[in-house]
Amino acid sequence: MSNPPRTVAVIGATGYVGGRLVPALLKKGHHVRAVARSLEKLRCRSFAASPQLEIVAADALDENRLGEAMRNCRVAYYLVTHAGTTRGDVAHKNRKAARNMVRVAERAGLHRIIYLGGRSAQDSFKSSGHLGSRGDVGWILACGKVPVTWLKAAPILGSGSLYFEMLRALVERLPVLPAPRWTVTPVQAIDIGDVIACLLECLDNHATIGRTLDIGGPESVSWRDACVVYGEEAGLPGRIIIPVPATAPRLSAYGISCVTPVPMRPALSFIEGLLDDAAVDYNRARQLIGVDMTSVRHGIRRALQETRQQLTQTCWSDAGEIRPPEWLACSAARFGSANIYECSYRAILECPPEEVWRLLKAAGGRTGWYFGNSLWKARGLVDRLLGGVGLSRGRRSQEEIRTGDALDFWRVLLAEENVRLILLAEMKTPGEAALIFSLRRLQDGCELVQTARFLGRGVGGLCYWYAMAPFHAFLFQGMLKNIAYRAGCGLRAGPEKFVGPHESCRLPSNWGQPN
């Protein structure tokens, strides 16, 4: 064993694992450099104020920026997974980022890289798709001159994880569960707390340098059995499980995407991962790392408690880049586009902004949108049928909101307390859309402005905007009235059409810039 490294870099610090690893490293007394593509997502994390933390914006696809982020670091955790429009696009991005990391690590004089990846078929360049590209990342990193510790994780179980959120949605929503053959594959799912413990142990354990280790839980439990365990822990009536004599991964993934918050592509990758996890020996890693692993039942129990108590730290759907579109930071005139449309309604409320913000930050998920929820659900259903995310993602927490959070079919671009909430649409539309709530303090109350902003594409965008215009008027006026009522505020004026939203309705010009 040796003393902890002077600076530890975590690349992918806002992802599901990275967002939990950073505070764990800080708690251990390490000086940490958190690296992610979005400064705004880093700044709003609970650990951002730690004096032992540096936050740096860098994309692993940008070799120069990545090199600057690795300067004076001794060890780097590499937790990067890129997304794309196609599987080939995902694979290309992941491989390019890994090659950049190899070159940067050598130039920066890193002592080692610790890489966490999932299991993939053969973990070779012959594998295809997202899982295969993650295996390729490990091989690319291992071929560099800097020693690599490569951890191949079984499916991760924890509040907010893909495994747990799929399990929770299916068991709670379906009294009858079809069970294709893949659901009986024995899997040694690993608790997220154990994943973090393994990553921490590898940092100080020299025996793991240059090693490739499979990490998984202490027992083999099939997906079907995990459904039974979840039902018991959640206190639900017994579910009827009907065996299906086919593996049908694609059909299963489509069904999962219709019932759970998980889209088809990650659902399919998850099923493929379960099939690849069978017959893997995790004993060597447990002996070398020495972490006491958590059983599936205890993992489900803990994840369920954290979910019910609104203590979920990170969620699978919150990971990834948020790149604010230029048109959202500018007025239509300044942007020079005739295809930017705006619709705003305003109300003057007889209460301070704090009372209104309390409701705005809780919108979506189980709370709904304060008016016309049946219309919101219908729009979510249409989006699902078109292959979008729909409303089923809900939100990580009903009590807390932060930049980068998934919020139904929106993504939080900015949550500035008592000032504004800016949401970017991730639904299927012929263009790009945003929903903005802005607050302005008045002498004896506040002004609340709700704005829909849309950058249309072609004739389809034009038709879509004007088709939605009547719904905007109906919904916005109803929402403003109900927000005032729920906040216990009197309405001094409005809701009324508001022309020319003030600057707080747009992203600030310094969004994402270093302080």
Q: What is the spatial order of strands in the main beta sheet? A: 3-2-1-4-5-6-10
For the terminal residues, how far apart are their CA atoms?
Answer: 38 Å
Number of strand segments: 18
- Return the structural class: alpha/beta
Largest sheet: 7 strands, parallel
Which regions have little confidence, pLDDT < 50, spanning 5+ residues?
1-5, 121-132
Mean pLDDT: 86
Helix content: 25-40%
The total count of helices amounts to 17
Shape: globular
As an assembly, this protein is single chain
Strand content: 15-25%
Radius of gyration: 24 Å
From the structure above, extract its key features.
single chain, 515 residues, alpha/beta, seven-stranded parallel beta sheet, seven-stranded antiparallel beta sheet, 17 helices, globular, disordered N terminus
Structure commentary:
The protein has about 525 residues and is α/β, with parallel strands linked by helices. About 40% of the residues lie in helices and about 20% in strands. It has 17 helices and 18 strands. A seven-stranded parallel beta sheet has the order 3-2-1-4-5-6-10, sandwiched between helices. A hairpin with a 2-residue loop joins β16 (about 430-440) and β17 (about 445-455). The longest helix is centred in the last third of the chain and has 29 residues, at about 460-485. Residues about 1-5 and about 120-130 have low confidence and may be disordered.
